[in-house]
Design goal:
Blueprint (H helix, E strand, L loop, with lengths): L2 H18 L8 H7 L7 H11 L2 H16 L2 E9 L2 E8 L2 E6 L5 H12 L11 E9 L2 E12 L2 E10 L14 H11 L4 E6 L6 H12 L6 E5 L10 E4 L8 H9 L5 E4 L5 H12 L3 E6 L7 H7 L4 H7 E13 L4 E3 L4 H9 L9 E3 L10 E12 L2 H8 L4 H10 L5 H10 L5 H7 L7 H8 L1
Parallel strand pairs: 7-11, 7-12, 8-9, 8-10, 10-11
Antiparallel strand pairs: 1-2, 1-6, 2-3, 4-5, 5-6, 12-15, 13-14
Helix pairs in contact: 1-4, 3-5, 4-5, 8-9, 11-13, 13-14
The structure holds zinc ion.
């Protein structure tokens, strides 16, 4: 069933005739409001939208859109204006796709309804606003983070669907191989020091950290987090949401957290020298510290800390391990079928010493996966344990390449290798792995040649 069918059926069921009736003056409302600076001039229009935002068909349309997003396991709902009105788009498995255009004139009304539900100022249409709303869907509480910004054709809203319960945040649900699961478990049981998780935005770092925290969340430990924003509520731990507007940054919250007698501290992101310094200090003085950094791979996280002004010997004494991760789209189990590698893929496999490619699969596309061939995502991990020789190398301020080579010699598998292993298990495609990982060992020129 294509998204249009979903929409038409659902909306007719819920919305009725009234909601489909086109409103002639609405398409220009937001433009008018935006350009004349709001205020008295568009007070009438604002009232109209405010009233319509409270009407049942608006609620039904929004519930329908969010319900569909949750059913399709979308991470984000985009309600964005353009010259033709409004367009609703869903990000599913990391890929953004068009869902449907709301009935004419309903875009600004939907935005107003979202503002009401998120405790935002409904009359403010010239400045960005952030908020959150909670929704009850099929017996589950769903947290949604909302961002609204004014754009040329009207306000644009993005709703991030945060949680559908914390049950998913468990180590055994991360898709770890038995060996990695044991390594993660051992690492998280360290009494003090620092563990870093690295990867780009949307690589599932938060999920991994929450799984670790859930694993460690016991009565005899005090766990405090500082986050931007708090994405999931976890019972039994203290979660601090940073608020730079009032001066509550990662660094300032961290200083106070240390006076709260914590055993375990989670830092949403280490991106400035002060936060890095306090985090290292906390790890050195008997706390177990978890933090994220934005680097390409595990070994690059070490020089990142050094570049923030931390002495290499302090990094060596504190860092227990670095986890790099990516989210990989999984093949749809309903339509996957055996396949053979392309010439390019065969060369990649050959360079990795793989001969048997009989287990490779592809997704044909079916109703269950919306024709994409993929459904759901799973993380792949690169785990660098910082002990023995690697600790010495960090102490001596070695380059990321030296660290990477030493980690490989000690048994660390790269993201590319973990991904190829997943493809060879028939769980994803090589195409997907090549899209999201890079091969450190291959010469780019050779890769380009192989791609022809
Ligand atoms: Zn399918």
């Amino acid at each position: 069933m294509c998204p249009d069918d979903y929409f038409d059926q659902g909306f007719q069921l819920d919305g009725g005739e009234n909601a489909q009736k086109p409103e002639e003056k609405d398409p220009n409302l937001d433009r008018a409001g935006f350009f004349d600076g709001g205020g008295a001039a568009d007070a009438g229009a604002g009232t109209d939208i405010t009233v319509r935002a409270q009407q049942p068909e608006t609620t039904r349309l929004l519930n329908y859109l969010l319900g569909q997003a949750i059913e399709l396991e979308a991470s984000d709902v985009h309600i964005q204006p353009d010259s033709d009105g409004y367009l609703v788009r869903f990000r599913i498995d990391g890929v953004l796709g068009d869902f449907q255009r709301p009935p004419k004139g309903m875009g600004p009304v939907l935005i107003a309804r979202i503002k009401v539900l998120s405790d935002m100022n409904i009359a403010e249409r010239r400045l960005p606003q952030d908020g959150r709303l909670e929704l009850h869907h099929q017996g589950k509480d769903v947290e949604i983070r909302v961002s609204i910004i004014p754009a040329v054709f009207g306000e644009s809203a993005v709703l991030r669907i945060l949680s559908t319960g914390i049950a998913e945040h468990k180590l055994e649900h991360l898709g770890l191989t038995p060996k990695s699961a044991q390594q993660f478990h051992d690492l998280f049981r360290s009494p003090h020091g620092m563990i870093l998780v690295t990867g780009p935005t949307g690589s599932g770092k938060t999920t991994t950290l929450y799984a670790a925290i859930n694993d460690l969340n016991q009565m005899n430990r005090k766990i405090i987090t500082t986050e931007e924003p708090v994405e999931y509520d976890i019972k039994g731990i203290i979660q601090v949401e940073i608020n730079p507007i009032v001066g509550l940054t990662f660094a300032t919250s961290l200083r106070s957290i240390l006076r709260q007698d914590p055993d375990i501290i989670l830092i949403g992101e280490i991106r400035d020298p002060e936060t890095a310094r306090i985090a290292i200090q906390a790890g050195l003085t008997g706390h177990l510290v978890f933090g994220t950094v934005h680097t390409r791979d595990a070994s690059s996280a070490i020089p990142r800390l050094v570049n923030m002004g931390i002495e290499p010997y302090l990094v060596a004494d504190t860092i227990l391990g670095v986890i790099a991760q990516r989210l990989v789209r999984k093949l749809c189990t309903k339509c996957k079928e055996p396949t053979t590698p392309s010439v390019y893929e065969a060369k990649i496999l050959e360079s990795a010493g793989i001969e048997d490619t009989s287990t490779l699969c592809r997704g044909k596309g079916c109703e269950a996966c919306g024709g994409h061939g993929y459904r759901g995502r799973q993380a792949i991990f690169e785990l660098m344990i910082c002990d023995g020789e690697i600790r010495d190398l960090i102490h001596n301020n070695s380059s990321p390449i030296t660290l990477r080579n030493a980690a490989r010699a000690a048994g660390t598998r790269s993201l590319r290798e973990e991904g190829i292993a997943m493809a060879l298990r028939g769980e994803t495609t090589l195409d997907e792995i090549l899209r999201i990982t890079i091969d450190e060992r291959m010469d780019p020129a050779a890769l380009a040649e192989a791609g022809d």
